[in-house]
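**User:**
Make up any protein.

**Assistant:**
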Amino acid sequence: MNAAGLICEYNPFHNGHKYMLEKIREEGSKCIIACMSGNFTQRGDPAIINKHLRTKAALENGVDLVIELPVIYACSGAESFARGGVHILNSLGICSRLYFGSECGNVEKLSYAAEAVKNNSVKEPLHHYLSEGLTFAAARENAVKDVYGREISDILKEPNNILAIEYINSLLRSHSNIAPHTIQRVGTSHDSTQTEDCFASASRLRQLLYAGESINKYIPENTSELYNNSTFPHGGRLSVLERTILYRMRSMSTEDFSKLPDMSEGLENRLIKAVRSCNTVEEILQMTKCKRYTMSRIRRSIIHSLLGLSSDDFNTEPQYIKILGFNDNGRKALKEMKKHSLLPVIIKYSDTSGLSKAAKRMYETECRCDDIYALSGSTVTPCGSNMRDNPVIVNCRKI
C-alpha cells in the first residue's frame, strides 16, 4: 500500500494543514495516516480542542486514518516527539513515506543539516556554548555555524526545520525504509501572531479562541461547523488547572522533582524555589525562565508534574497502536495494517486485554492523563473517556 504518514498535533486544524494534505495527494499518495497527539501537546499545554474533535476535522479534510501519539511523546521535546511518532509509523508496516512541513522546503538540505547536528565535530563547540548557559537549541545552532557555516546553521533557526531534522534522524537511527518528504510551509511562520490572507499559525488561532474571537477565516468551512456545533469545542487551559497544579507541585519532594522527565542542569532547583515562592503558574514560569531553559521546556515540566509522569515513563518505546478514527479508505488501510503491524492494535477497550505489562502501563497512563484533561475545560467531564469512546468514523459504508 502506498501510504504516507505524518506526525502532527492539529491544535487546531487550519488551512495550512489542509494545504499540506492536498500537496501530499498531488504527489501520488493513495492513503494518508496521521499519528496525532492526544489531549496534551508538545509545548506543555492541554490541547485547545479535544482529540476526538481534532480527529474528525482531520478525517473530513484529507486524512484517512488517525493514530494516537501517546502522551509521553506528545508532551516532550522535539527529539522524543519525533522518535515516538517515527517508531509508530515504522511499526505499521504499510508506510512508505513520512511527510512533514518545513520552512526550508528542501529535503536534501534538511538531511545535510540532520547529518551536521550529529557529527562528532560539533560536540566540542556544543559543550562550550552549553557551558555559557545557552539553551540546547541555541548552543547547537552556534556549534553548527562554527563547523559548517551560516547556510546550514540558519536552517536550525526555524521550528519546523528543527522538527524535520529530528524526523530525519529518527528515520536514520531506526534504519527505517520510510523515505522523508517535506512540504514547504505557506503563510505565516510557526509561532507568528500575524495572519496572511486565509492562513494563520496554530499559535495565533489559539490566541483568538482564548480571546473569544472567530477563527472561521483560517480554518476549512467543515471544520468551522464542527467546532461551532460542538458542546466542548475548546478549553484546555493551564489556568483552569492552576490550583490542581499548585497542589500537585507543592506536594512534591525534591526527589520527585529530580525524577521528572528531561530534568537536568539544575532545572529542578529553580522549579522547587519557584514553587515555594509563587502563587500562580505564570509566576512559576517567569521565575524559572532564564537563558538556559526555554519556556516550552518549563511548561512541559509543569505538565509532567501535573500528570504524574517520570523519567521512567520515557525510557521505553511505544507499546501499541491506538486508533482514533478512520474513513472508508482508512478502514482498508487498517485491515492491511493488521497483517503487518509489529505492535498490537487497539480499536476498542476490549483490545487491551492481551497487552503486555509495559503496554498496559502505558495505556493506563494515557487513561489517567485523559481524566485530568477532563478537568481543563469550562465544565468538568466524566472520567473514563479513553476506555469508553469508540474511534471516530467518517464516510464509511455500513458492512
Observations:
- The chain has a mean pLDDT of 91.
- The longest helix spans residues 357-373.
